[in-house]
Design a protein that fits this description.
- This protein has a single domain, classed as Jelly Rolls.
- A 4-stranded antiparallel sheet has the order 1-8-3-6, with no helix packed on it.
- It is mainly beta and 90 residues long.
- The chain is built from no helices and 9 strands.
């Protein structure tokens, strides 16, 4: 389990987890998009799920003025990395 903080306007690079990722937003609003799926806005108190085969294209703070925080529980192999960056994904 880990806590992630996005400063205002922050975003992630494309990546995958090779895990079941269960996300719960603690503060603010984030936007997530998996390859082949819609852009989803997730607010404080809401959840988001990524499967082990999903490619996470967009992960960002929806606000340019307020921070966002969330916790992620990863169910993965013990030796698997937390995330694997992907180059050139769209």
């Amino acid at each position: 389990m880990l806590e992630v903080s996005y400063p205002p306007g922050a975003k992630d690079m494309a990546h995958r987890h090779d895990a079941h990722a269960l996300l719960y937003v603690l503060e603010g609003t984030i936007q997530m998009q998996l390859k082949g799926g819609p852009l989803v806005t997730v607010k404080a108190g809401e959840t988001f799920y990524e499967g082990p085969d999903d490619v996470h294209l967009i992960g960002r703070n929806a606000s340019s003025s307020a921070p966002a925080r969330f916790v992620v529980m990863l169910i993965k192999r013990r030796d698997a990395p937390v995330l694997t960056p992907l180059e050139g994904q769209k």
